[in-house]
Amino acid sequence: MSVGVHTPQGLVTAAEMRRGLSSSSSVTSPTELAMAASEKNATEEGTMANDIHKIMESLGMKHAAASMQNGATGGVEAYRSGNVVFAIFRIDDTAIENSYNWKTDIARMPEGYRPFLDVAMPAHYDGQDAHVVVTIKTDGQVSVWCSKSPGGTIIFTGTYFVL
Asked: What mean pLDDT is reported for the chain?
């Protein structure tokens, strides 16, 4: 079985695509590859993020976006199937004030996409080596804790349960 994307020309396998992957100087292992920022835009036709968005929709998953707050920019996409939510974060929090390494209420998950218990999951600052945790509360409040609070782009994908 091959993994890839169906196009009008047929199946393009993952091995054939490479999807803008390259060996960047920021990659420290010879077996790792870095993804080009252009592949992370879900609204741009032909990007990996756009292909993921199409797959999620084809599976009958409901879609919603969180509202950004308190100076945060970027986006939080949420897909729901039954009582499971898959969230994709790409947030720039550079403009947000932090208190003791917490940046609180940077986004608000919409009704129907909020966890039934508060959740905390690891995340990543793009290009940083800081430890990052994203929290989503039952009221939909999204906050970030970071060991260094460098500010920048937070990248996160996570799955949690809703009622």
From this structure: 79
Tokens (6 digits) for 149: 């609070």
Tokens for 71, please give them. Answer: 């100076």
Whole-angstrom Cα distance, residue 21 to residue 19?
5
Q: By C-alpha distance, which of 135, 141, 131, 143 is closest to 160?
A: 135
The residues, ordered by sequence, that sit 6+ positions from 139 with a Cβ below 8 Å of its Cβ are 114
**Cα gap 99→76, rounded to integer Å:** 22
Q: pLDDT, tens digit, for every residue of 57-88? A: 777 778 898 999 888 888 888 999 899 999 99
pTM attached to this predicted model: 0.65
Q: C-alpha distances in angstroms, 125 versus 63, 94, 119?
A: 25, 11, 19
Distance of CA 109 to the CA centre of its chain: 13
- Find tokens 């292992």 and name the residue: 29
